[in-house]
Specification:
two-stranded antiparallel ribbon; NTF2-like_dom_sf; 2 domains; SnoaL_5
């Protein structure tokens, strides 16, 4: 896949709400999730590795009470 194909697939899956599938298809096993300065530690801070990113997402969603919408462009 070239960059445009990756971007198109990401947007397609994002718009369909298939965020886990995005990770399965498009993330490397050694991907890194980096937060803004001041938010880099703790369970939702910087993490390394696909499984750590998935766990970070699960922890984030545990705190979500209601999701009003999302979009991707």
């Amino acid at each position: 896949m070239d960059i445009q194909q990756i971007a198109d697939r990401y947007v397609e899956l994002c718009r369909a709400g298939k965020h886990e599938q995005i990770q399965d298809e498009l993330y490397a096993d050694d991907a890194i999730s980096i937060e803004a300065p001041g938010n880099q530690s703790g369970p939702l801070g910087n993490v390394e590795g696909l499984e750590a990113i998935r766990e970070k997402g699960r922890k984030f969603m545990e705190d979500v009470v209601e999701l009003h919408g999302s979009w991707c462009s």
